[in-house]
Amino acid sequence: MTQRLARPPRLTLAATTDAPNIVEVRRISKSYGNQIEALRDVSLAFPRGRLTTLLGPSGCGKTTLLKIIAGLIPADAGDVYVNGRVVTGPGPERAFVFQDFALLPWANVLRNVAFGLELRGMAKDEREALAAKYIRDVGLAGFEKRYPHELSGGMKQRVGLARALAVNADVILMDEPFSAVDEQTRRKFQEDLLQLLAVERKTVIFVTHSIEEAAYLSDQIVLLTRRPGTVAKVLEPRIDRSHGPEAVRRDPAYLDAVEEIWAMLKQYLA
Amino acid sequence: MATSVAEAGTARPVRTRFANVLFWRLVSIALVLGAWEIAGRIPVSFAFPPFSATFAAFVGIILDGTLPAAYLTTLQPLATGLVVSAVFGVMFGVLMGLSRTAEWALAPVFIVMQAAPMAALIPLVTFVYGIGLTAKVLAVCLLAAPVIVLNTYKAVRTVSPSLLDMCRSFLGTPLQQVTKVILPAAGPVIFAGLRLGVAAGFIGIVLAELLITPTGIGDIITYSSSIADYPTMYATIASLIVFAGVTVSILQQVETRFVRPEKRA
Amino acid sequence: MPAALLLWGALWEIAGRLELVPILPPLSDVLIAMGQLVHTGQFWAGARTTLASFATGMGLAIAIGIPLGMLMGRIAMADRLLGMWVNLFASAPLTALVPVLMILFGLGSTTVVVTVTLFAVWIIALDTAAGMKHVNPSLLEMVRSFGASRWVIYGRILPLAALPEILAGIRLGLIRGVKGVVIGQLLVSIVGFGELFELYSRNFLMPEFWALTLFIFAFALVASEAIGWIEHRIEAYASSRS
Questions:
Q1: Tens digits of per-residue pLDDT, A184-229?
Q2: Is the pLDDT score of C219 beyond 90?
Q3: Quick check: A104 and B163 CB within 8 A?
Q4: What is the pLDDT of residue B11?
Q5: Using one digit for the tens of pLDDT, what is the confidence trace for C43-83?
Q6: The pLDDT value given to residue C155
Q7: Cβ distance of B2 and A155 shorter than 8 Å
Q8: What percent of chain C has pLDDT over 90?
Q9: Which of C21, C22, C183 sits opposite B207 (nearest CB)?
Q10: C221 CB near a chain B CB, below 8 Å?
Q11: More confident residue, B241 or B20
C-alpha cells in the first residue's frame, strides 16, 4: 500500500515549546482515604522521545503516578505539565496501555485497535485502514477478525499497544504491560517494542517492577521508594543499543545498571 | 498461536448429543403423561381427569377457536405490560447503575418489590384502574419490572472499571462510555433480567385474570371450572404453563446463542 | 438503605395527606392501623393460620426439595428424566394451578399449604442439585475410604458439603413460599389473611389493608434476611471448600 494513510491530526494544544521535556510533574501528592499516602511530593521530568521507566517495589505508587499523568485519577496536590501546559484529565497527546489489556470482549481485534479513533468520530473505512497498519506493525497481521478470548496474553497486549499507537499520541503510558505474559513472550515483546519505538519516535513512560526490564528498555530510570512514594534516584544508563538486542544483554553498561539498581532497591526493601 | 483448542475425541458430535437429550426428554414426557393417565383413571379425584380426556378437550378448544382467541385476548395486556416493564425497567436500571444518588433512592424500593409478595397489591389496582386493560397491564408491570430493574442495575454497576478507564483515556465522552462500553458489557445480564421478567409477567397476567377479571384464558378457566368441565380447565391451564415454559426456554436459547456470553469478559 | 426508606416513608405520608391516590392513606394512618391490628383477635387468628400454612408448606418443600435435588444431582438418570420438569415448573406461572388445587383440595388451608409447597419446592431442588454437582469428588472418596455407609453420605456428608447452595435455594424458596401463601390465600380468600384482605378491600378499609400488607412484606423481608444471615455465617466455609 503506497498511499499515505491520513493520520489523525495532532490535537496537541498549541504548544510553542519543543521543549526537551514533553511531560513534567511537579510536587505531586496523592493519598487514599486517611491512611494510605501513595505519593508524596514527586517532581520529575520526562524527556521527549525517550523511554522513562518508573521502577520500585510493590506499593510504591508507580501505577498511581502513571494514572495521574494519564489524567485518569486526580492528584491531591501538584500539577502535571504536557508540552508546557497544565493538564487535568486525559488528552489526545497521551495514550495508555493497560496491565489487564482492557480490550472490549465483544469486539474483534480490528475494532479494538480502532477504538480510540472510533471515539474521535473518524470514519469507519479510514480508521479500519489505520488500525490494520498498526496491527501489522505489532506483528498481528491476519488476526484482525479474531476476538480477545481467542488470543493469548501476549497477543492481547499487542492489541493494546496497537490501539495506543493508532491514535498518534506523543506520549505512550504503559502500566506493567508485560507482567501478565510468560518470560519468552516478554523478552520478544521488549525487543519488538524497542524496534517499534525506533520507527515511531514516541515518548514512553513505562511502569515495571522488573529491574532487568527497566535496564534493558530505558533511557531514564526513576526509582521510587516504598509508600509513601518519593523519588529515590533518577538513573540514566547509557547503553549502546546499536548492535542489536542480544548484544545489549551482554553489554557491561547494562549489567552495571542492573547491579546499581538492585543495590539501591535493597536498601529500601530491607 | 492462540486458536481455540479442538477437544479432539472428548466432545461427542453435536447431533448425537442433541438426539440423546431429545430421547430422554421424550421418555420423560411419556412417563409423566402415562402417570397422569393412570392417576386420572383410578381416579385420584373426581375432579382429576386422565390425560387422554384433557388432551381431547385441548384439541377441541383449539379447533373451535376458543383457545386461540383467548390467548390473543390475554396476550395483549401481557405483551404490553412486558414491553413497558422492559423499557422503563432498563432505563431505571441504567440510571441506578450510573448515579449513586439514584441508586441510594431507588434500590431499596425495587429490592422490597422483588422480595415481597406484590400479589397482595393486585386487588388494590382495581380500585384505581377498574377492571380494564390498564389494570392488567399494571399487574404485569408490578411483577415484571422489579427483577428487570435490579438485573440491569447490577449489570451496569459491575462493568469492569478497567474498560471504563480505557474509554476515558481515549477521550470517550460520558455518552460514549454508556453506549460503547456499559451497555454492551451489561447486555447479557440485562437480557437475563428480561427473561426473568417475562417469567414474572406471566404470573402477573394469571393473577390479573384471576383477581381482577377473567377474560381470555382466565375466562375459560373460571367458566369451565364452574360447570365442572375439568378436562377443558386442565387443558387450558396446562397449555398456559407449557406456553410460558416454551417462551422462557426460547429466550434462554437466544441468550446462549446470540447474546454470546463467551465474548464478554 | 434505611435512610432511603425513610425518605419514601415521608413521601408516602405527604401523598396520603394530599389524597393524591384514593387507595393510599397517609403512612401515619397505616402505622396506627398496624398498632391497632396487633390488638385484635382477628389478626392473630389470621396470623396463626397463615404462619401455620406457610411453615407446613415450607417444611414439605424442603423435605421434598432437598432429596429431589440430591437425586437429580447425583444420579444422571434422575436428572435426565426429572430435570426438564423441575426447570419448567421453576419458572412457570404456578399461580395458574391454584384454581385446580382449590378444586382438588377444597377451599381451605390445605390448598394454601399445597400452594406454598408447589411454589417453593422447585427452586430448592434446583439449587440443591447444583450444590451436589459442585461437591468435591475427593471428599467423597475420602469418606468412602473410611467406610461411610450410603446413609451417612446422603444423610449428612452431601447436605453439609452443599450447604451454601442448599441455603441459597431455601432462601429463594422462602420468598416464593411467601408469595405462595399470599396468592393462595388471596384466591381462596376465606382463610387466614386472605379472609382479612377480602374483608378490608370489600369495605374499603385502606389503612387496615395497607397495614396487613406491610406486615406481610415485613415478614417476607425478615425471613429472607434471616436465611441470608445464616448464609453469611457459613460464607467462610463456602469459599474454603476447594
A1: 888 888 888 888 888 888 899 999 988 888 888 888 999 888 888 8
A2: no
A3: yes
A4: 59
A5: 888 889 999 999 999 999 999 999 999 999 988 888 888 98
A6: 83
A7: yes
A8: 29
A9: C183
A10: yes
A11: B241
Asked if A221 contacts A234 with a C-beta cutoff of 8 angstroms, the reply is yes
Residue pair C91/C34 in contact (Cβ under 8 Å)? The answer is no
B232 band by pLDDT with thresholds 50, 70 and 90: very high
- Cβ burial of B197 (10 Å; 0-12, 13-18, 19+) is buried
What are the residue ranges spanned by the domains of chain A? 33-93+205-270
Task: Reply yes or no on whether the pLDDT at A18 is more than 90.
Answer: no
**Residue of B4, B171, B189 for testing the chain A interface, max A β-carbons within 10 Å:** B171
> φ and ψ at C192, to 5 degrees?
50, -140
Query: In the predicted model, is pLDDT for residue A151 greater than 60?
Result: yes
B174: amino acid identity, one letter: P
Q: Which of A70, A102, A151 faces B163 most closely, judged by CB atoms?
A: A102
| Contact residues on chain A for B160, CB-CB shorter than 8 A | 102
The residues facing A224 across adjacent strands are: A231
Burial of C175 (0-12, 13-18, 19+ CB in 10 A): buried
**What is the distance in angstroms between the Cα of C155 and the nearest Cα belonging to chain B?**
27
Please report, in angstroms and rounded to a whole number, the separation of the first and last CA atoms in chain C: 34
All 3 cell numbers of residue B228? 365442572
Q: How is residue A142 written as a grid cell?
A: 491476519
Domains within chain C, CATH numbers bracketed: 43-240 (1.10.3720.10)
**Which residues are CB-neighbours of C14 under 8 A, at least 6 positions away?**
none
Q: What residue has cell string 364452574?
A: B226
**Which residues from A are below 8 Å from B184, CB to CB?**
104, 106
CATH class, A33-93+205-270 region: alpha beta
A213-217 CB contacts, 8 Å cutoff, 24+ apart: A213/A53, A213/A178, A213/A186, A214/A53, A214/A55, A214/A261, A215/A239, A215/A254, A215/A257, A215/A258, A215/A261, A216/A190, A216/A248, A216/A249, A216/A254, A217/A51, A217/A53, A217/A190, A217/A193
Q: Using an 8 Å CB-CB cutoff, list chain B residues near A67.
A: 165
Distance from the Cα of B176 to chain A's closest Cα (Å) equals 7
Distance from CA of B161 to the nearest CA of A (A): 9
Determine what percent of chain B is predicted with pLDDT higher than 70.
93
**Cross-strand bridge partners of residue A234:** A222
Read off the pLDDT of residues B135-149 as tens digits, 9 standing for 90 and up.
999 999 999 999 999
What domains lie within chain B, and their CATH numbers? 51-260 (1.10.3720.10)
- Per-residue pLDDT, averaged over A30-43, amounts to 87
Distance CA(C226)–CA(A22), nearest Å, equals 60
Q: Would you say B247 and B190 are in contact if contact means Cβ atoms under 8 Å apart?
A: no
Integer Cα distance of B25 and B32 in angstroms: 11
What are the residues of chain B with a beta carbon less than 8 Å away from any beta carbon of chain A?
A: 2-4, 160, 162-163, 165-173, 176, 180-181, 184-185, 187, 260, 262-265
CB pairs under 8 A between A and B: 66
ipTM: 0.85
pLDDT for A17 beyond 70:
no
Chains touching A (at least 3 CB pairs under 8 A) are B
B263 vs A106: CB contact, 8 Å cut-off? yes
Chain B interface includes C226 (CB < 8 A):
no
Tell whether the torsion through CA atoms of C84, C90, C96 and C101 is positive or negative: positive
Given C88, C100, C217, which is nearest B237 (Cβ)? C100
Partners of A28 in the beta sheet? A42
Residue identified by cell 384514593 is: C22
pTM of the model as a whole: 0.79
Distance from CA of B245 to the nearest CA of A (A): 30
